[in-house]
User: Fold these one by one.
Assistant:
Number 1:
Amino acid sequence: MSDICVIGTGYVGLVTGVCFADLGNRVYCLDINKERINKLQQNVMPIYEPGLDEIVERNVKAGRLFFTTIYSEALKNAEFAFIAVGTPSGVDGEADLQYVRNATEKIAEVVDHAVIVVNKSTVPVGTGDWVAEIISKKRGERKLDFSVVSNPEFLREGSAISDFMNPDRVVLGSLEKAAAEKVATLYASLRAPILITDLRTAEMIKYASNAFLATRISFINEIANICDELGADVREVADGMGLDKRIGRSFLDAGLGWGGSCFPKDVKALAHMAVLHNTQPQLLQAVMDINRNQRRRVVYHLRKVLGNSLSDKVIGILGLSFKPNTDDMREAPAVEIIHLLENEGAKIQAYDPQASENARKELPGIILCDDPYKMAEGADALVLATEWNEFKQLDFERIYRLMRTPVLVDGRNLWDSARLRKMGFTYFGVGQGNHAGRAANKEG
Ligand code: NAD
């Protein structure tokens, strides 16, 4: 059993803390957000993540998990201080490190015993060295026995607990191998491959991984748009490509582009780092451009069927979170699409199973509905933005009757186009040969 402090109780920090407690450690989760900590102390989850509340309750009851806003309390016996605070995009696309700096300074201020500072936040290459510098400078003569380890996180929101407990790999980077090996012991029971590297390499592995996944999505979206015009079906193209073992099938689902709290800011930050060091990130730039344009495809389809002016058209949006099983709307395709449509003068009514609370703050101009059918009422078109399970089996006959004009833009290729067309809907998928008359030829 180890004593651990996790700084930041967002998607990563909270899941990390709770899972380490579940593995038998004593864990203090700390946040500067009092409301968040108050909620956690009452077993109310500040984020939606399947299974999280149960595991929190179990570990609090077992006396292994604590929530606090007080650094001295959280770090009192900590052998490991994990930093898991946000690193959002700054003005030029760089990662904003103010929260990492604050957390680091607090560690330097409060700790008076040997500690390993483990950075879980996604941070620019070189940040580990900077963290060490901040601590040494802040302590001056009052030297602290500490090491810095980079331990990038790869969990996905929506399956965060299972991802944490069953990682494909654990990456640990440090200039002091012994420190990385100590952190490795925390993960030993997970039986995952552990890769120990230097600090900067570990930091780069995180950025390169996210940039590569974003590249795959932008690649298949570009192929999808070509399919649309040429009359091929990108779903079968992806299957055909994916059977090649060198390629694989994952991250080849065409859609409305990537979003969320990580890919957009991480690709931007990597490109920014490259430019800063006189390298031209041409591929990363194209990956971001394709992603931005992918949102505009929705407007392109809608114009084809509703005419050039979308002013006063009522558009229903199904799904607001950036992907299913989360309430996180950061850089969600739905949000950008809504802004594009609002700029065209369209009226938006939307439904999401979990993100309504966040949407109320972020999208004050839209009508939030209690179910998909209220959302369909009087709509000129309906756009599927997030593929929540509950959207798979909708009562489309009812939806057909409720809509003013039966137009569907299936931004996730979730529905059966042939059936819906037969029912009388005008249907657009992604890369299904929408603009080449293919659907008409194939489905009669
Ligand atoms: P988040 O925004 O959900 O949570 C960050 C938390 O840190 C907030 O609760 C905030 O109040 C707290 N915080 C800020 N400054 C603090 C301080 N000085 N002391 C204590 N708490 C402080 O962020 P997140 O999504 O959990 O991401 C955290 C980091 O992990 C980011 O660098 C992100 O890129 C990375 N990451 C995120 C994911 C993901 O799926 N969300 C996956 C892998 C890596």
Note: The longest strand covers residues 3-7.
Number 2:
Amino acid sequence: MSSAPCASLGVRMEDMKKMIETVRNASKAELIALIERGPDPSLLEAADAVRRRYYGERVFFRGLVEFSNYCKNGCYYCGLQRENRDVHRYRLTPDEILACCREGRRRGFHSFVLQSGEDAYYNEGASPLIVDVVARIKREMPECALTLSVGELPSAVYEKLHVAGGDRFLLRHETADAEHYARLHPPELTFASRKRCLYDLKAAGFAVGAGFMVGSPGQTTEHLAEDLLFLKELQPEMVGIGPFIPQAQTCFADAPAGSLERTLSMIALVRLLLPTSMLPSTTALGTLGAGGRERGLRAGANVVMPNLTPLERRKDYMLYDGKIGVDDGVGEGLARMIESVRRAGYEPDFSRGDPVIL
Ligand code: 5AD
């Protein structure tokens, strides 16, 4: 018995289901083999068919506000690490953050991501300022979804952020291998703590985003397979996947960047592993080369995050070198992103973009 081809592609429903089952039931060794096979057309087409099944042609737009680049951490790969004296540190005031969201709302956005380094000014104390900011945005724009990406915090603060109106929280796990984690981070940062935070966020009621870099220093294919197994266990609503890109002031300045092809394979495999997940086609992917972002979308990604940060701050939020979009005003960047989504064959969507629940 044959079933109808899925959406506009020639992928049959049965083939798609078979691919989902294959990835879902794969052992670590089988995942390694799947990753090493690379982003062949059968993988990419199956991933695209799955995303179309749940989300059609829609690509969800989230307005990104990079509100502080102060960071108390020293992640070895990141340009914002505390040791980097060359960074001009800034933080937007609560009023400025609100103004960025208003501007986004005016342009049609219904979903915002507030991202920062781990900045004690906003996150610490008896009643952290970031909780107020969340409450203010939600009071003014209750129809919008609010995502936080502000790092590891005590579970009590996560609870306050959720009560104040935070809907989602992005906290990449970076690598699910404790030893590899230790190669990328100073000793006070551990995978155990990162994992605990992700489960605390779930318990607090957030839709959770995990994720990792592809090609980070010391990463093996086995580590990537472990990342997939960790995602299968955590079942996050969102997964951020982008290539590692070296930053000149870090100790990994001379390390090679992650590969575009491998990043595409990982996006496609995660689309099959977590069919309804929200997967951004990241700025880092776009930075790797022309058409990177479009290829991410065609590999199963269904989210983009145009930057709403004031132009004069953009160049100070450099996690890695060569980051694209730092010279674009909000309107220009947005127009470019809309154009890129259409070029890839999809339709921009400015709704809240909640994940489908099966
Ligand atoms: N290359 C690519 N991604 C990076 N990030 C931090 N530094 C780099 C880099 N050099 C990613 C991390 C972090 C997210 C905010 O940015 O995965 O979680």
Note: The beta strands are 58-61, 63-68, 111-116, 145-149, 168-170, 207-214, 238-243, 303-304, 347-349.
